Amino acid sequence: MKQFFRISVKPVLAVLIASLALTGCGTDAEKANSSEAKKEKTYELKVGYLHGQGAPLFDVANHEGFFEDENLKVEGVSFASSADGLNALQAGKIDVGLTFGTAAPLTFISKGADFSIIGGHLEGGHPILAQPKDKDKYKTLEDYKGKKVGTIRMFTSDIVFRSALAEAGIDWKKDLEIIEFKTPGDLLQAISSGKVDVAVAANTILLQALKQNLAIVGWSNDLNPSHVCCRVVTRKELLSEDKGEAFKRLLKALIRAERVKNEHPEKAVAAAKAHLKLDDKTVDSIVNEEHSHYSPDPNSKEVKKMWEQMKSIGYIENADGIDLNDYINLDLYERALEELMNEYPEDKDYYQKLLDRFNKQNL
Fold this sequence. Notes:
Blueprint: H1 2-5, H2 11-40, E1 43-50, H3 56-63, H4 66-69, E2 72-79, H5 82-90, E3 96-97, H6 103-110, E4 115-120, E5 122-124, E6 127-130, E7 148-152, H7 156-167, E8 177-181, H8 184-193, E9 198-200, H9 206-211, E10 215-219, H10 220-223, E11 231-235, H11 241-263, H12 265-276, H13 280-287, E12 292-294, H14 300-312, H15 331-343, H16 348-362
Parallel strand pairs: 1-2, 1-3, 7-8, 7-9
Antiparallel strand pairs: 3-11, 4-11, 5-12, 6-9, 6-10
Helix pairs in contact: 3-11, 3-12, 11-12, 11-15, 12-13, 15-16
């Protein structure tokens, strides 16, 4: 701009140009500087997930440098249970949870937690376990009558199981005994020791279950093929301009990770080996298990479906006055997709498919 004012012009014209420069060009410069500053700024997030296999999309994004691409510094924090992780989120010890299910965040919301679901991570993928000797006993839901069934407190597979029983006309309060355990590890110990007959478990203990030669007699997908599980959840108060930008960048990295995981599953194995410390074949059987579908799409329609199921089976109470739309943010994911379409025009067709999926599952 200084060079511009050295040009010899008539005084009146000089004043006019200077005025235009201050009101017009100056504004553009400020916008450019602001945009550049936002681009260069490093954002930080503490991300919570459950013990066990970790969070595959998070692992892939980290391994492939997608967080770095977004100037995002992430710190992973693991927890033994969804309740522990969500309590930490509510207390401000972490900024966002990735693998705390759907049922648990919804339960917290029903009790007054000011959470916001901004994306997804996992759909399906939870095994139902039994002792090897009982592997052929559980063919239909009728076979669970009179049994001691272990579940995980406030866990998605538990809601899927109870809802399936109710839809089949089976009273889960009378026709069988459901025993809740605090953590997936506690449930694994119970089924291994025979304290329960069958366990409606979690994907996080799949590896340990296989090591103990427990039988997989079914999957949560068998009970409800379209059910969602792990949602990306944070506190509403963090969705300000600054933190909101950080969460949008997190979602962009996870969206890119979904494609890598689907098209190059071997990269998901390499990413997970950093913490699983197992051979490639074993890691592949865990992170690329065919019943587990990983996607960062919020899939709010299925979230709302589970909310209604939880109310109908009496799992949550006094929730009729809650509008769940107030606890789901779709804007961040949609903006993340739009930015990726603009930043990677050569991949626009791929991201358009994701946008079409988003519109189908959320709008």
